[in-house]
Amino acid sequence: MNTEVKSAARMLDLLEYLAGCSEPVKLKEIVAALGFPKSSAHALAQTLVSRGYAIQDDTERYVLVHASRHRSATRAHEARLVSAAHPIMEQLRDLSGETVVLAVRTTRGESKRLAKCVSRQAIRFDVDLDGNSESYCTATGRLLLAHWDAALANAYLARVPLMARTPKTVIDPDAIRALFVSIRETGISVCDEEHIAGSTGLAVPVRGRDGSVVAALNLGVVTTRYRIRGDELIAMLKGAGEKISERLGYRGSTSQG
After folding, report:
1. Model pTM?
2. What is the pLDDT of residues 93-149, one digit of tens each?
3. What dotted CATH number matches 76-247?
4. CATH assignment, 3-70
5. Do residues 103 and 112 make contact, with C-beta atoms less than 8 angstroms apart?
6. Which residues on neighbouring strands pair with residue 103, listed in sequence order?
């Protein structure tokens, strides 16, 4: 096997290994698992990072960006978002005990999940990163719609069937638009058992350098636990959203709409 083919094979081995890891891994773990020389493993891992297929967190652990698990090109801005958010997401997961999700809005107004840190509790909320989720009845989706162009948000509400997922789902367009106003004023989006019974979603904005909302940070909480410590969880989530925004270069007031 010539050098070029061997390098390609090693890169594929590394991609497959990272795709099977549910948590970020250190370089020494890659070396032990794949048997590569340390210098080769480091070079390959750094190549994945530079091309946006993986991120390296503050503790020098590597994790594959979700989109690259499906052999599609990862947009550079999404890779930067995940890189900035992931260590804060882990901290929030450990502090709150709940599942943390990072999502962006698609051009059609749906929510696209980029990364998650799943709660370690026995009873917990979890989501699949594949596909997009409805926006009108989720905390993440409503937050992203609230900070979208009003005409585009209205077009989304007119286009999408507003179906009641639970008895608590708000489906009246005017009522949803009123929620958008509240979200912009309070900085928090709450969906209490509107999408899934027994699950309460919380979301706050993540802002880029210019102050625009570039993503939503979500806590998926078991409703019984939300009833006990909702205010505490909201405060934790807001703090985490501000930290990620700062890592992206945002220095303004978090009260910006």
Report:
1. 0.74
2. 999 999 999 999 988 899 999 889 999 989 988 887 776 778 999 999 999 999 999
3. 3.30.450.40
4. 1.10.10.10
5. yes
6. 113, 216
